[in-house]
Amino acid sequence: MIRQQAYKIIRLGVIGSGRIAARFAPEVKYVSGTNLEGVFNPKLESARLFAEKFELKFHTDELESFFDKVDAVYIASPHNSHYEYIRKSLEAGKHVLCEKPMVLQASQAEEVYQLARDKGLVLLEAIKTAYAPGFLQLLAIAKSGRIGQIRDVEATFTKLVSGDIRELRTEENGGSVTELASYPLLAIVKLLGTDYLDFRFDSFEDENGVDLYTKIYLKYKGATSTAKVGLGVKSEGQLLISGTQGYIYVEAPWWKTQFFEVRHEKQEQNEKFFSKFAGEGLRYELSDFISMIYGNERKGYKLTPKESIAINGIIETFLTNRLTPTKV
Prior knowledge:
The protein is an alpha/beta fold. 32% of the residues lie in helices and 26% in strands. The chain has 11 helices and 15 strands. The chain has helices at residues 2-6, 19-24, 44-53, 63-68, 82-91, 106-119, 133-142, 176-180, 182-192, 282-293, 305-321, and strands at 10-15, 34-40, 58-60, 72-75, 95-99, 123-126, 150-158, 198-205, 211-220, 223-230, 239-243, 246-250, 259-263, 271-274, 326-327. It is globular.
């Protein structure tokens, strides 16, 4: 009751009604201070079915009507539409939580973050791992000096998909990098920073030019890193952080960090850490989003605008200037 008196309940709306939105909707009930009110989709029938399934108050295909009924939006539409929806939402005075990759150009990321600052609104990129308790614990231990100086980070995220789906359509900027690279790049920039010296890519494409497997190499002063992502090649989804006095092994799926081990030359010195990852993990990012709307700016360190812009910039470079890949 005290909380309700101090803060109004944030009316949340979702833009998009696909798979990720369907995973997000049940998570909202675990976050205090907000309620999922309705859904917007230019395909009205899809919005209607989504609203019925999750018992929402309204559904619409009219953006202005949608904005009139919400205080904040969660954008879960296709990648290509994120920028326009973010910009329109901010211009309408709405706080924004947007799925990854937030945009496909670094300049667009800079623009919308500046727009949010100018309007005093919260803009957050929804890379769920960044807000998960286990991953935050991992970062703290990795940076504590337990394994000495970090010299290399290897992060892998692959899943096998097939059929006529968004992830494999060139016209929707499908592919391993746009679909998955935000996660391993998050681990790399959180551990090594955004001041990389150089980066390059190696890819396998299908006949339509969609990358089915890509390695991203980032070179730093005194450190290296590799991100591996795949939609047509399967690999162990682990995270390995190598240091001068030991290493940290995070078992698959590392992006849902629940167990990791700090390993040393002498095995008796090894340490194991366990953490809970609740549900789909989307409740963590939403909780921070609502907290920041209430004025808790300290939550913003988990994924800063600078880190988000760097990640989106690497993805942009891949899409526009990638090296000639090996065809499969």
